[in-house]
Structures are given as structure tokens and as C-alpha cells.
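QA checklist item 7 of 12: single-chain prediction sanity check.
[x] sequence parsed
[x] length recorded as 238
[x] structure emitted
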Amino acid sequence: MTNRPDPARFAGITDWVFDLDNTLYPHHTNLFAQIDVKMTAYVSELLQLPREEARVVQKQLYKDYGTTLNGLMHRHGIDPDDFLQKVHDIDYSWVAADPALGDEIKALPGRKFIFTNGDRGHAERTARQLGILDHFDDIFDIVAAGLVPKPARETYDKFASLHRVAGPNAAMFEDLARNLAAPKALGMTTVLIVPRNFEPTFSEIWESDPDEADDVDFVTDDLAGFLRQINGARAAAA
């Protein structure tokens, strides 16, 4: 099932904030699977570990620090630019253009942002492949966040301050419920994007967030369809 948006909850939204990976493109695209493999290889080479051991270390860093990058910086002092360049050296042809999503994002009133724990280059290449890059006003990436990843509250505060985003006037779309806790606290309307038919094709047990249900206002497995209902309700009320 997919939650239908309550038009009243979105009537005053003027800032639309979207996560990138597994949010703006479908979970089953598995683009992040390529990045995940690259991160494991990076950890393996850095620490001179077999792949299986490196993957365990990588996922523990992710769990403890929010991102593998953050963990490697804290524990091993790596060069973040080197890491970001290597793990995002992937094949973007896996991402199919989504003109329907582009039409709905373009139709939303106000400003649109990509807010990602990845870097700007990755976000631009992905959004360009989707055919939606031109519909966004800006990209707030891990570099703009001072390399402090979501779900850190300071990162959301930095984003809101930089772009003068007022929580009650904003909506946040994310595929990880824990990354909606801070937006919810800031007064944003929160939307959790889940895999099609709610059946994950590439996920890890630590990516489930059963304790964050109160931070999620709406859930959908069809972002374009969800936005279409919002735009339709606005058009009908105009």
C-alpha cells in the first residue's frame, strides 16, 4: 500500500528537499550497490584486509559514524576527496531517465533541493541521468555539510541556515527513517520512500529504523505518483 498525501499538509510547502540515493531513483536500480562495492574495496586496500573482513569493518563504521567516510576519517584520517572520487567512479547507465518524475518535481511550487550524504558530482551525474537536474535550485552535499553526514542535527541546521529554509514551510523526502528525525524536529513534513511494493532488493539489517516511526508523516513506494497527487490537489484548489 501507499499512503496518500493529505493536501492540507502540503498546501503551505515552499521548499522541497530530496535525498538522492534510493529516493530520487528507485531502490531496485541498485546504483548504490556499485558504491557499496567500491567502499568495501577502499577499506580492504587501506587496511590490508580480505574483502569479507573489510566489509564487516565498513558496515560497522557506517553504523557507528553514519557514513563509511565519516568513520574512516575519524579512525584513520583518510583524505575525503580521495575517498569520494574513488567510490563514485561508477556506471551511471544503470539509472533510467524518469521524465514523469521530472514533470512532477518541476510542477512543485517553490524551491527544490537535493540534500545528500554523497558529493555534488555524484548527485549531478545521477540527476542528469534521471533527466531532472535542471529542476533543482541547489545541491547540499557532504562537502557543504562540513563532512558531517545526516542524521546529525547540525547538518540540517547548516542546510536550513544556508538556504533560509523554515521547517514548517518545507517537506523532506528520504529513504532512511532515521534521517527524518531532525527534519521532523525542525517542523518539516516528512515522507519516507520505501522500495517498490515495500520489498527491499538491496538493503542491510542496520538500515531498518523501527524506532523512528514517529518521525515519518507519510510513506510511499512511488515518489512520482505521490508528487502527482500533491500537484493535482493544488491544481484543483487553485
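[x] summary fact logged: The longest strand covers residues 111-115.
[ ] second reviewer sign-off
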